[in-house]
Write a structure and sequence with these properties.
The protein is mainly β. The chain has a single domain, classed as SH3 type barrels (Roll). The chain has no helices and 7 strands. Strands 4-5-6-7 form a 4-stranded antiparallel β-sheet, with no helix packed on it. A 3-stranded antiparallel β-sheet has the order 1-2-3, with no helix packed on it. The two termini are 16 Å apart.
């Protein structure tokens, strides 16, 4: 996560992958584990993913993407 944008009644997160910037909002799908964006704050994006556990069962897992500090 490299930043956020705010519009009336809508917040977007800016994500960088392979030097491309993507604009996402709550409800968008993301990642390889069937992730869905559930919340966007100024410093993080909350994601709910569906992954297989050690027994092979499909379970939901919550994870976050944190705002990355500038490397300047």
């Amino acid at each position: 996560m490299v930043g956020t944008l705010q519009r009336p009644n809508m917040r977007y997160a800016l994500l960088r992958a392979d030097n491309v910037i993507y604009q996402i909002k709550v409800g968008n799908y993301i990642g390889q584990n069937f992730g869905i964006v559930t919340r966007i704050d100024e410093n993080e994006v909350a994601i709910k993913e569906v992954v297989q556990d050690a027994a092979g069962e499909w379970v939901e897992r919550a994870t976050t993407l944190q705002l990355q500090e500038s490397k300047r």
